Amino acid sequence: MSSYLRKKFQHTFGYGESQNGKDEIPYAESDAETDASDTDEQIESNKVGIMRALVEKQDPSAKGMDDQMIRRFLRARDLDIEKASTMFLKFLSWRKDFVPNGSVSPSEIPNELAHNKLFMQGQDKIGRPIVVAFGGRHKQVNVDEFKRLVTYTLDKVCSRMPNEQEKFVAIGDLEGWGYANSDIRGYLAALSILQDCYPERLGKLFIVHVPYIFMTAWKAIYPFIDRKTKKKIIFVENKKLRSTLQRDVDDDQLPDIYGGKLPLVPIQDC
């Protein structure tokens, strides 16, 4: 992305790569901060228990879901039990209808996989798996199959996460993207699945090789991105691509197309 385009994004949407261009210096927590953290954790744990009782009463299938999943939905709704419960019950209903067999099979998404646009390889410095999506390879086709591809990918990414991790990092590569790739309906469907059905799973999204014409699509999508997700999006200038990614990813874990050492692996082969 050129510096001109970066400034346009910052002016239009109110955020950019960083607040001050510098790394923040961590400070040791005081005893008071530690006590407050313990209290917050206890409050959150209590709310998880309350929410579990509520959702299990309305949908017994919730008993098969672990506390971490319930906690993610709570966090997505700022620990509002009522809102989080509503969101969670909608997710359970969606899952039964859209993924009745428990998972999406590659045989259900042959056309989407044939475009070879989604890959997974490596981890960032804190162990979050890395997913790479090539927007210039996406075509407007069957939106239901595209939604199944998104679900298939998110399920696979989540299943590959280390035990201590809950989030993943994504790189959205828009090299070669043009109006033929602009699929607002598909993008919004994917966004809805990510935000409503996999909350608190996205750790960070780098958008790279951004063409100016993408602004048109971005303006249509932006109002539907929730506050928490917006904070995780970073538009990267072309000349700062490798250095920006290296702040989060070591070279031996960085995809080779961005100057690292790992070859990309198609999502279906992971």
Automatic annotation (TrEMBL):
<feature type="region of interest" description="Disordered">
    <location>
        <begin position="14"/>
        <end position="41"/>
    </location>
</feature>
<protein>
    <recommendedName>
        <fullName>CRAL-TRIO domain-containing protein</fullName>
    </recommendedName>
</protein>
<feature type="compositionally biased region" description="Acidic residues">
    <location>
        <begin position="30"/>
        <end position="41"/>
    </location>
</feature>
<dbReference type="InterPro" id="IPR036865">
    <property type="entry name" value="CRAL-TRIO_dom_sf"/>
</dbReference>
<dbReference type="InterPro" id="IPR011074">
    <property type="entry name" value="CRAL/TRIO_N_dom"/>
</dbReference>
<dbReference type="InterPro" id="IPR001251">
    <property type="entry name" value="CRAL-TRIO_dom"/>
</dbReference>
<dbReference type="InterPro" id="IPR036273">
    <property type="entry name" value="CRAL/TRIO_N_dom_sf"/>
</dbReference>
<dbReference type="Pfam" id="PF00650">
    <property type="entry name" value="CRAL_TRIO"/>
</dbReference>
<feature type="domain" description="CRAL-TRIO">
    <location>
        <begin position="106"/>
        <end position="266"/>
    </location>
</feature>
